[in-house]
Specification:
2 helices; six-stranded mixed beta sheet; alpha+beta; 60s Ribosomal Protein L30, Chain: A; 130 residues
Length: 130
Amino acid sequence: MAGRVQEICVPGLAPPVGPYAHATRSGGLIFVSGLLALDEAGALVGAGDVAAQADYIFSVLARILGACGCDLQDVCKLGFFLVDLRNCGALADVRRRVFGAHLPASTLVQVAGLMGEGTLLEVEAVAVAP
């Protein structure tokens, strides 16, 4: 039905830690919930290493987008929530490697903390379905 919001939960990913879906789709837009570096069992990936956490998060983002018929090149907006701004350089390096010449709009905010001990980064995204 046009205008309805479709909830998307991807098997094999960590289940959402609250009452929400991994992503939602409305028309041609995909809204991906905030992603943490948690494996399918909910264990932290890349403790103490923002680059490792970013790598893992972007791999999960790619899986979610793939389940929606999209890929990372369809991302038009990224939101970053970073515990320590001194990690901006490492995050930027991973982002450049993952997205290449593709430059989605973005926001980066420093936060006091995130869900789960040791999480350094949370990423949300908006993509346009091809």
